[in-house]
User: What shape does this take?
Amino acid sequence: SSQAQAGTGPPRSLIPPSLGFAPMGFLDESYANLLSSPLFRQPPKEKAVMGGGTESEQKDSDHYFDTADVMERGLARELVADFMEPLPDATSLWKFNVERSDDRREYRLFCDGGEFLMCARVSRDCRKIDISMYDPRDRAASIYDPGRPAFSMTCSADKAEWRLVQERCDNCRHLPRTQYSCSGCRGRGSEILLVRHHNEDVGDGINHCMDVTVPANSSAPNSQEHQFITKMPVWNEKVECLVLDFKGRKIQASAKNFQLASEDDESERVVCQYGKIGSNTFGLDFRYPLTVIQAFGMSLTTLFWD
Assistant: This one.
């Protein structure tokens, strides 16, 4: 059924199909053709050894050789600008999938057609999440560098507030460690998402909620700040639980399920929805004005929702 329990604690039985609503159409074409192609690479070529440098400088040199190797074949995923642009405006949601590892420490984002986009890894203390454009499980693992994340997320001590930042721009991220920033951004981190969590009583249940702030993009003309809030579920007397209608998805019950709408939209048109579709698989669907990294970041903030 497309209708399933919202973020209300331990999963319960699914909602009977008879309670479903009319299906909502989704775009058939994959967003993958608008983004960089997934990286498929043979083992790296033998690299020249740079003499006389520090260990840090040698790591930089190794990284640059690997990067140049994949760039030569048009397979590099070093630039993240495309993931920071809003998706094309459309009447329907774009569909993506999130695969979670068994230990819940790694989350990989895919287009609906299966093309890999990015990978998030949770720190040991669960207070930070680093996001990379490369898949650590791919044969090109040598190009994956956990010390060079494209984006990072951190949470507050009470786990109620999350911030997503691009700590270094595309130029800065590939400078030697001895030269931290470029002349353009001067190393100033760019915050691209702020999420605050809280709980609300709905009927006889408690619902996980989030308030989302998407800052204006200072580098984009006419960019505006956007505010999104949780679309509240309703209490269903027949199944005695809170339910949401995930049109276009067969969703399983999970405390991590959510839908978001614009704060000033009385129609509550869904802008982003995240729902469990398998034991370790979640559907992530969203539309303009969200970017890929912003929607992925929102989904990752449900890490502690149980």
Remarks:
- Residues 9-31, 36-50 have pLDDT under 50 and may be disordered.
